[in-house]
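Figure 3 (text version): structure tokens given as input.
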């Protein structure tokens, strides 16, 4: 007796194709669930997760069970939070930046903080946003409301302006097209005003945020230039009423230039 084995790809209804499509959709939806935790609430219930992700609650339950099993999400009672496994994976991202930018920059951030006692940030540009890669803060420093891994608008932050100034024109246009909503009464919402500031940054190597992103906070940043592009940027942040941004510009330019040379090695 002979046995005929049917090619799954030719099965009735194209089961292989439909299974593949369904699996891809499930993976994408699971990633959507992880993305909802990037807000200011680290722990969320199923309904909140479904509402933020735009996915039915029944599907959320199923996907969360897989994410918990894979140790990407942890369950606390009836709520969920990102698990330590994602923390481990997230910390590896720094090594994929240009020649391990975070590790190379760490001593320079420490030196800046030691000299200024101001909150020090390292960031990279990702589309119309900056991503905080590292941060140094002390007990007596002004409490900058930023998180490592957090995303913030590029158009109104000193870090973003420092990097946008050396980005291709298409990337600058794309950032402007993404919107320039007013965050405080000091936010520049005019594309012409932003372009004028970026032109100044190209000359001075310094970018400023004078309470544009957060009321009460002033920042100054300098780009880490490599082959004419900004591989990242470093900023100093302090209280608007007591932080003299001009006093620290020279130190920032010196430090970022040293780091840029290190990256080039």
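Below: residues designed for each position.
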């Amino acid at each position: 007796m002979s046995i005929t084995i049917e090619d799954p790809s030719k099965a009735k209804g194209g089961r292989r194709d439909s299974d593949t499509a369904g699996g891809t959709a499930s993976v994408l939806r699971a990633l959507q669930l992880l993305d909802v935790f990037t807000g200011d609430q680290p722990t969320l219930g199923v309904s909140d997760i479904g509402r933020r992700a735009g996915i039915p609650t029944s599907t959320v339950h199923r996907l969360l069970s897989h994410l918990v099993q894979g140790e990407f999400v942890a369950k606390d009672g009836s709520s969920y939070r990102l698990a330590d496994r994602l923390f481990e994976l997230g910390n590896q991202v720094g090594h994929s930046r240009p020649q391990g930018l975070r590790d190379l920059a760490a001593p320079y951030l420490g030196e800046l903080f030691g000299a200024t006692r101001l909150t020090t940030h390292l960031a990279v540009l990702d589309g119309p946003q900056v991503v905080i890669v590292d941060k140094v803060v002390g007990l007596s420093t002004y409490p900058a409301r930023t998180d490592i891994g957090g995303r913030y608008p590029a158009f109104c932050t000193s870090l973003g302006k420092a990097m946008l100034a050396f980005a291709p024109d298409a990337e600058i246009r794309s950032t402007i097209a993404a919107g320039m909503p007013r965050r405080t009464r000091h936010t520049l919402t005019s594309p012409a005003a932003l372009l004028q500031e970026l032109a100044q940054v190209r000359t001075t190597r310094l970018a400023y945020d004078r309470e544009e992103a957060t009321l009460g906070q002033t920042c100054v940043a300098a780009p880490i230039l490599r082959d004419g592009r900004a591989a990242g940027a470093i900023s100093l942040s302090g209280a608007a009423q007591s932080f003299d941004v001009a006093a620290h510009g020279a130190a920032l330019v010196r430090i970022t230039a040293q780091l840029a040379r290190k990256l080039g090695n």
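The chain is about 45% helix and 20% strand.
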